[in-house]
Amino acid sequence: IVRNATVIKSCLHRFCDKCLNECLRSGIKECPSCRAVIGPKRSSLRRDETFDKLVATIYPDLERYEAAEDERIASANTPKRLHHDGNPMSPSGKRAKATAQVGVQNVREYDYWGMSKASAAITQQLSLVFIFFVHMWQGVKEGMLFSATLSILSPVLRTLTESYAVDTIWALSVALTGIHLITHDYTYINGTTYKYVLVPCPTCTSRYAGTISLNAAIFTSVLLASLLHSNEQVFSFVLFAIEVFAVSPIAQHNIKVQTPLRARYG
Hints:
Blueprint: E1 5-8, E2 14-16, H1 17-25, H2 41-44, E3 45-47, H3 49-58, H4 62-77, H5 91-106, H6 112-158, H7 166-183, H8 186-190, H9 211-225, H10 231-265
Antiparallel strand pairs: 1-2, 1-3
Helix pairs in contact: 6-10, 7-9, 9-10
């Protein structure tokens, strides 16, 4: 509370007379609020007795009020414990204790071995993902290598039979197709191997034995591909022939082998 109020005439800011005199003695010639320059003391400052009377009216016991304010400020700056031994806790102490208890309840304890067992599922899933991508990348590399080789050979295959007549090419294709149908390994496709027949026979095999049939089919596809007009058509036709004559027997064999087992035990 301002005591013995003194007004700076240039800016009309009001301060304690004691505080303002200390500032002037320390060499500060500016208003503490607006930094206005303070001239000579007698011409720049004046006492404000009206403000002193107003303070006295509002605070009749000014000394006691200031002592209580000083005690309150000192107690606020002193760190407090949550509660004192043997004394009832204040409302603020109760609130602090309740907050601490809620914080302890929100803390969850973990066991090392329990965390290790729980992390095993994450490690297993990561391993499965890595294995999947490794095997997929191997298949992609093999497919890219095969496709690149066939793409390089496509111009050669397109011009392979330029010196032959079209009738000769068609006659060879028909003859080789007949050889393919005659020598094809139908036993392998039906899945009648040692593992899936009741009485094993020496003629049953679990490996594809139609080598002559496969070579005849591929040779037929090469002859017919040479009649096409672009490298892209040759590449697509030969690739489709390889899928039909070389890959599809394996798929048919697996379907015939797995279907009876699922019907029997499913």
